[in-house]
Amino acid sequence: MNAATVPWIILFTPLIAAVVILFFGKYSKPFSAGVAIGAALICGFLSWWLFGQPDATVANSFSWLSLPGGFTIPIGVTVDHLSKVMLVVVNTIAPIVFIYSLGYMAHEEGYWRYFAGLSLFLFSMLGIVLADNFLMMFIFWELVGVSSYILIGHYYSKDSAADASKQAFLVNRIGDFGFMLGILTFWGLTGSVVFSEIFQKIPALETHGLYLAIACVLIFCGTVGKSAQLPLHVWLPNSMEGPTPVSSLLHAATMVAAGVYMLARFFPVLEHVPDARLVIAWVGGITCLAAGLMATQQNDIKRILAYSTISQLGYMVLGVGVAETWDVPMFHLFTHAFFKCLLFLCAGSVIVSMHHEQDIWKMGALKNKMPFTFLCTIAGTLALTGFGFGSFGFSGFYSKDLIILWALAKSPFLGWIAVLTAGLTAFYMFRLLIVVFLSIPRSEEAKKAHESPLIMVIPLILLALPAIGAGWPFIEHIFFKTTEPTDVPHIVHFALLAMFLGGAGLAWALYARAVKDPVFIPLFANRLYIDYLYTWIVKVFHDGLAWLAGWADRWIVDLFVAQIPSKLTWACGYVMRFLQIGNIQAYAFFFGAGVVGLIYLLIAR
Amino acid sequence: MTPTLAHYLIVSGVLFTIGLAGVMLRRNIIIIFMCLELMLNAANLSLVAFSRYNLSMEGMPNYNGQVLVFFIITVAAAEVAVGLAIIVALFRARQTTHVEDLDRMKF
To answer: What pTM does this model have?
Structure first.
């Protein structure tokens, strides 16, 4: 076992597991779960081992495809600090979610299909993490799309789930197209798709500022799709149709993190292109505010968390746009992975004990019935809302505030948007917490709810610990080398605390005794009408195209294939029927004339 | 003067023309029918004549023509049977054998 082979083992173990489950999993439930969990645990163990090794800089790749013209596509792994941190995040969360799935999926159908999908999903994500060139990353990028399609559409007999998986796939396709154009642009600029070779050539290309900026923005399109930034965020809330552990994995470590990870991987180029980073920062800032606003008026427990994920991804993308190193957004990705995974698993626990009821206005007062879930949700909520002051806080406090500080230092307007969103985050998360766990029970199920089985509670506790502590400076310094901006007014820290208290207090004041939602803001409840706009656009274009195609079919294709030949035949027949004069001798004459004509033709030639 | 091939062919052509003219000009369908037979026999005559005047190396006539004549006679016999039956049926239906009265099949 050495540092050169371990990444390959980590990469291919989940694929082998997926194949084995695919072939043999249908015969035994424990077998398929065991193979998947075993593979994930091996990956987890090896990732931590690899993290302890010194950074390998040796090239670890082989040529996969060689095209004439000197264009080669290698398949290779990068083992640097960034990928090792990401490996640790992915492979720590994956086994926990897999184990949790044992409890959540115990009575669901398609058990082996589910675990094969999870393993494939893990394989795809690890491919993105380890890729050392754009094309390999793109291949795994698409594989993530495919496996998310399989998992979101797990309950494929349900129309909404099938539609959601289709939507996730198609919306991602839009972003991926931009990503592919970006890859091709960079290939055109530098003649290579390998990251390290591109990075070497970028300083020489700084004179092509605009061209480079456009290329970077095209690459960023991939992130917009995969990490659900405005305007391609619509698939993420709908992907809640999948089983809750899938949502948890998808939102924490695998799919949506891929976009941010790709930007971090690409950071050495972005450093040289301030224009592109400005675009990235604005997209991130607007996304985090808009998604925060939408989250305040959702009623589905998973959808609230989904919009919160979009909002937090907005923070990370904003971080890519404003921070000095990739450590800042990756630090938030790191902490977010733990607490968001925790929150989703808590939501899953609640959903199971509520017999698959997801409307928070049917829940209430679950704190005594589900004490562990309640405590873990509190930990996740405090981590997500960034509770803390001075030198102590939950994990989100360190990572989110760092991004906000950098945003304030680089672009005060975006910085204050981020501060405002922190308040919104506190508001909607405490709304969820208060409505679901405190206040009054609102349905029979809520009165009869009980704590989930141990197999689901233990992963919650395992995740609650890093959700609380992953951001503490001494842990942070193992993984990241973050720096704080210097020239930020100190008042920001008080503003953030005020935002937290204000948001939480407002939520308490509004929802502590509410039976129904006392606030109704159609703009936010309808998700800023963006979904309707897209539906309308698709409808107009789709119907327009269908109308045009129908018109062309009727008036052009039918004209030449059906109408003209039929009319011509009819006209010929109409002319010819005047020959039918009914006199047998005339017919004999025609016949004789015809024979004479034929003989004439035959002999005269 | 011994008759040559040309004489036979002229007779055959005259017979054929008389038949054709009869088919086109006569009104009675039975006469038309007889003229048709006349045309067939004109063809038979020319075939036999060709057969007789196309001797092979051994001095034998070309039997292809004569065999074809037998075919034509056979087919003509069958045709007469069918044709007369149709004419009888037609007469029963319309009480006439004049083709000018049989002009219902037209546009």
So the answer is: 0.77
